[in-house]
Amino acid sequence: MSDFEPKIVAYCCNFCAFAAADLAGAMRIQYPPNVRIILLPCTGKVDAIVLMKAFEDGADGVFVAGCIEGECHFMEGNLRAKKRVAYVKRLLEEIGTNPQRVEMFNLSSAMGGRFAEIVEEMTQIVKEIGPVCEDRQKEPQKQ
Ligand code: FES
C-alpha cells in the first residue's frame, strides 16, 4: 500500500463551506489533514486559472465548496463556479490528467459532518489516482 498523502486545496465560500468546516472543528469531527482551506467571499470568485494554478503549485486535488444551489448570497456565484469546475475537468482531461482531481460540492453552514465527508471522499479518490506529477507517465505512449 502506498504511503502517498495527497495535497488537497479547498476553495470554500464564507457563508457555507467555510462555516461548515468551522462547525466540523467545533464538533470535533475528524477528517484527513490533507486539506488546505482557502476562504472566498463566494465561489463565484474562483475561475479556471485559479483552479489550474493550484495544480501547478503542487495540489493533487482541488475542490470548490459553495452554497446550496439557489441559496448563493451573490445570486449565481455557485452556478458560475459549477460551470468553471466542469470546464477545468475538460482541461485536465485534455492535458492527460484525471478529471476526478477537481470537484464542486454544495452544502450549508450547518453541514459540518458533510464537510468532513467531502474531505474524506476527495482524499480517498486522489489517493487512488496517485500524485498529479505521475499522470503524464501513465498515459500510453503514442507512436
Ligand atoms: Fe456561497 Fe455564493 S455566497 S457560493
Word description of this protein:
Helix 1 (17-26) links the parallel strand 1 (8-13) and strand 2 (35-40). The chain is α/β, with parallel strands linked by helices and 143 residues long. Helix content is 41%, strand content 16%. It is globular. The mean pLDDT is 94. The termini are far apart. The protein has helices at residues 17-26, 48-56, 77-94, 112-129, 135-138, and strands at residues 8-13, 35-40, 61-66, 102-106. The protein is built from five helices and four strands, in the order βαβαβαβαα. The chain has one domain (8-137): Rossmann fold. A four-stranded parallel beta sheet has the order 2-1-3-4, with helices on both faces. The chain binds FE2/S2 (inorganic) cluster.
Task: Using the CA coordinates, give the radius of gyration.
Answer: 15 Å
Query: How does the helix and strand content classify structurally?
Result: alpha/beta
Mean pLDDT: 94
- Any guess at the CATH architecture? 3-Layer(aba) Sandwich
Shape: globular
Write down the CATH topology: Rossmann fold
Unreliable spans are none
Listed once per kind, the bound small molecules are:
FE2/S2 (inorganic) cluster
Helix content: 40-55%
Encode the helix/strand succession as letters. Answer: EHEHEHEHH
Q: How many strands?
A: 4
